[in-house]
Amino acid sequence: MKVIVIPDVHLKPDMFKKASEILNKGLADRAVCLMDIADDWYQEKNIDLYIKTYDAAVRFANEFSDTLWCYGNHDLSYLWNKHETGFSIFAQPTVCLKMNELIKAAAEGKNIAYIHHIDGYLFMHGGLNDEFVRRYVSPDDHDDVEKDGFSGAQRLIAALRAAADRPGGADSRRRGRRRKRQTRRRTAGAAGVGAAGIL
To answer: Residue 69's closest CA among 38, 24, 102?
Structure first.
């Protein structure tokens, strides 16, 4: 299967037009969008461009309903109200409204997630490092992607989602471990390494 990957959009609606042309010509079978639809340099007050870009994304999601969408840090910063570089307080209400439209268009939210897989390949916005996988995925599942291809990718994604779905998600587990390490460091005087993670 040939997949076209739409990289970080950052207020460039023509990316969806070009991807549509490629799919309509049969040069690819489906698309994966790595999102970061919002934000571009010096555009924080250009609300019309935000609307135009999100409308293009929603049209694309409706036309190519099997497209997979991977949340990016700029998308989540609006939904979570956590300011990211380029965050526009002027566009925030618009982005939240348009993100909800996109989530509905993306197969009622079934095709939008942090991580997806097609034929054993993982797709995500920010990447995945070995340390994170070893910390949050059981050792039994860790190497499955390489060994089992598609089914291994499914198990890895399920394990990552389970970690994120726990109360407080992977982030709170990491913070809890950090607190324990800091306590041990204070009491034993040991040096420690900070935890790393992904979006």
So the answer is: 102
- Range 71-85 average pLDDT: 92
* In the chain, where the domains are located: 3-115, 140-188
**What does pTM read for this prediction?**
0.72
Do residues 7 and 60 make contact, with C-beta atoms less than 8 angstroms apart? no
* Strand stretches in 86-173, DSSP E: 112-113, 115-118, 121-124
Task: Look up tokens 């040096």; give the residue.
Answer: 191
Nearest Cα residue to 74 out of 37, 102, 19, 104: 37
Burial class of residue 168 in the structure, from the number of CB atoms within 10 Å of its CB (0-12 exposed, 13-18 middle, 19+ buried): exposed
- pLDDT by residue (tens digit) across 83-118? 988 999 999 999 999 999 999 999 887 899 888 888
**Calpha distance 42→171 (Å, rounded):** 32
Helix (H, G, I), strand (E, B) or coil at 178: helix
Q: Summarize pLDDT for 157-170 with one digit per residue, the tens.
A: 666 666 666 655 44
Residue the block writes with tokens 């993670």: 197
